[in-house]
Fold this protein.
Amino acid sequence: MSWRARNHPNFWAFAVHRLSGLLLAIFLPFHFWALGTAITGAARLDAFLAWSEQPLVKLAEVGLVTLLALHLTGGLRLLAIELLAWRDWQKTAVSLSAGVSLAVGLLFLLNIF
Amino acid sequence: MSARGDTWLWILQRASALVLAFAVLVHIVTIIYAVRHGLSAAAILLRTAGDPWWLGFYLIFVAAAALHAGIGMRVIMREWTPWRGRSLDFAALLLALGTLAAGWRAALGLFA
């Protein structure tokens, strides 16, 4: 398949959904393990929280929440295509606008708090 | 795996996605609430410890996420690598069970 054939909203939706899913699946066990270990004591949890105050860690957190929002909205798009009888142009328009707006909204929320 | 087994995995992937769509929204709202109300160990544990509803929510959330990640990784491996067969099925199951165990451990530590 040529890159011209791939340069299409539906291909990019697929690529973003797959990449965000892959990264989230790799991240998830580490997230659970770090949290499960940190909460074995208040002191350990506070040390973990102090570590997470670093700008780079905060930046990574915004990245993770964005990945989650992207995968969530991309997944809603997939479910709509597979489970609802919508017409093609509606699916694309609705999913793109919903996906982008939710991702932007979440980013905004994270930034102001 | 048989075609029938693959069909069941497809259905399970969609079913877990429906659970996750709701749970992820709740989780993101919870994150924002937690950040606004103080991220200290004492503040977090005071809000979470001994709450059976949040424990139940996160046990279900983790189970859906672990299942969804295992099935999703199996699909990605099959489409992007030559890896097939029982060893791949086993590895995907191991990933799902490992994620489940680590996630339940964290949920029990926070909410039980």
